[in-house]
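Friendly challenge for the regulars: who can give me the C-alpha cells for this chain first? No prize, just bragging rights.
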Amino acid sequence: MPVTEDLAQRFRAVDTTALCDADKTTRVLADAIRPRSARTRIFGPAFTVRCRDDFLGVLQAVEAAAPGDVVVVDGGAREIALGGELFARGALARSLGGLVVDAGYRDLGYVANCALPVYSRFVTPMSGTAVKPGELGVPVTCGGVTVNPGDLVLADGEGVVVVAPDRIESLLDAALAIKETETALVGRLDAGATLGDVFALAEHVTALERGEPSALRPRTRPPG
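First reply, four minutes later:
Bragging rights claimed.
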C-alpha cells in the first residue's frame, strides 16, 4: 500500500500512544527496539528480510526496497551488528523510510545524527559476516511481533507499531479523535479540574464496587 501525503499528514497529527489507545490489539515491537538516530518518526510499508549473524541480506534489502519502504530486519535478536553508517547512507541515497533491526547496529558517531530513522535492539561494534544471502519479502518476527511484507510501520519516540494496510485509515481516524479528546482534557486540567473530575473517577469506582459494568470515560466538559 503506498503511503499518500494525506495518510502521512494524519499520522503527524497523532502518535503511537493514540494508535494503541484506539486499538489494544495493535502490534507493538518490544521496548528493546530503540531509536539510534535523531529522527524517530517512521511511516512506511515494511520491506522484510530475515538473516542471522550475517548482514548480506540487509544489504540486499536496502538495494531492493522502494523509496519510502522501511527495511525490517529479523536478525534473531542477536547481539551482532547487521548495519552501520554505510547502510544508513545507502538507505538515504535510495530515499528509504527507515531501518528497524532486531539485532545490533553500529557507527553511532554518524547514525545518532543522520536523517534516516534507525532502530535496533543492540548497539555493538562487532559486525556479522557477509556470506549468506538473506530471505527477502517473507513474514518475519521483529521485536517479538509478526511483520508481513507491506505492513505499515509507524514509529516515534514512544516505540514502533505495525498495522495491516487495510486498517490504517480507520485506526488513524480513531487516533485523531483520541488526540482531540486529550486536548480538551488538558484544557480542563489547565483550568483547574482534577483527574477525578475529568474521568468521573468516583462514579466509575462506585459502579465497579457494586459489581456493575463501567468504563473509565473522559469528560471533555464539566457536568451539568
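Residues 5-165 form a domain with the Glucose Oxidase; domain 1 fold (CATH 3.50.30.40). The first strand starts at residue 27 and ends at 28. Your move, everyone else.
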